[in-house]
Amino acid sequence: MQINSYKENKNYSRHLVISTLLLLFTTPLSALAADPDSIAALRQMGKAFSSIAEKASPAVVGLKAEKTVSQDSQTYRNSPFGDDFYEYFFGPRSPQRRYQQPQTALGSGFVISSDGYILTNNHMVEGAEKVVVELADGRKFTAEITGTDPDSDIAVIKIDADNLPYLELADSDTLEVGEWVLAIGNPLGFSHTVTAGIVSAKGRSLRLADIENFIQTDAAINRGNSGGPLLNLEGKVVGMNTAIYGATGNIGIGFAIPVNMAKHAYKQIREGGAVERGFFGIEFKDITPELAAALDLDKDTKGAVITNVFEGSAAEKAGLKYYDVIVEFEDQPVEKSNEFLNRVAMLSPNTKVEVIVLRDGKRKTFTVKLGKRPPEAEIRGNLPAETIEQLGFSVINMTEELAKKLGYEGESGVVVREVETGSQAEQAGIVPGVLIKEVNRQQIHNTKEFNEEIKIAQKKGTALLLIRQDNSAILALIIFD
What we know:
Layout: E1 2-3, H1 12-26, H2 29-34, H3 36-56, E2 60-73, H4 83-90, E3 97-111, E4 117-121, H5 122-125, E5 130-134, E6 140-149, E7 154-158, E8 166-167, E9 180-185, E10 193-204, E11 214-217, E12 229-231, E13 237-244, E14 254-258, H6 259-272, E15 278-279, E16 282-286, H7 289-294, E17 304-309, H8 314-318, E18 325-329, E19 332-333, H9 337-345, E20 352-359, E21 362-369, E22 371-372, H10 376-381, H11 385-391, E23 393-397, H12 400-406, E24 414-419, H13 424-427, E25 435-439, E26 442-443, H14 447-460, E27 462-469, E28 472-479
Parallel strand pairs: 1-8
Antiparallel strand pairs: 2-3, 2-5, 3-4, 4-7, 5-6, 6-7, 9-10, 9-12, 10-11, 11-14, 12-13, 13-14, 15-22, 16-17, 17-18, 18-19, 18-20, 20-21, 23-24, 24-25, 25-26, 25-27, 27-28
């Protein structure tokens, strides 16, 4: 049974809501109270929302994901005055012990096929040992995780059931700011809660996932709504509720993944179990008026300026270079770097695409055969993921902007981007922002040279790093297993 609303007149709800809102904003409240027609219009708007909720709710499910996590225990809390103060009064710290802690996450999802396929967030089920799905009629099933896409925070799970009510997926590219939407989910454990609001903005980036293009809405979203549907006035899914702004709960700023992004992941997971995305092999950022001026471009230039080209990448093979500004992609203007990333990520590897860049102020056209997007850890360090895991940190090239910001002007090396908590790198004193100047007494100037020296160091079993931090040089030793 497919869930649809107002198929006999799909524009009825939209026109009704708009006309009612106009009535509300242009008529005094005292007049509304005395006007039977106004009250009737409000009742009809409520019935429109009620009908959508009634027909969609049976396809919305509650999720309970169970996992076991490892945590450290310690006798005393860390002292704000440092270890010397702590040990003077309490003696030496007890050694930390690792223990297993059960963890349960509650969220939402929605059925998209009558045979039990369900869409939800990856962060809901990632690492889960058991996922329990509860249907609107109270039935419970243990779900199988069919596949996940951590890059976009999307997961597909499956329950063993047939003839289920399911939701129809809309085209989220046609969604407009100002449209009315409804959110359905299980916030704070309150099953099948329905809220309404409008689309506040599109194309938001929160740095919660690697591929982002969030829909912002003021429909109330709280903890537990994650994975639930965002519906248009036709009762079709336009987004997957994913995040809220702020730690205290709903403040009228919620975010949903566009359903077209979920469709892309779902199709590939159903066909092959994994999501493969196109990859340019560059690092880039929005061009600002200041950057445009430095590149002798008009200050109003829009686009994505290339800050790094990975060795052997599709971009390098096509001839793209540092400082090229991507202004068009597949005959469409590029105004924000995040939009460009999303458009590339929605294409498959080996797809040939055309880009137009500004190089030295002149437009140049390139045809690029996309590569396959590697794991994010590999992108960050341009090293195999297992190598980065062994190192416990990732690095990036030092740009002029970074050198100025971090005080490394006139220096050479690579900058540490991220450090894994609890890694030997962290224990050796490596923190984000430090400059690595040498690997095993070999001077390095960029990530390419760093990678080459690390590969040599892996064969030796150790990497001795010369690091600059706070105007002093320190040595850090990384031991490979």
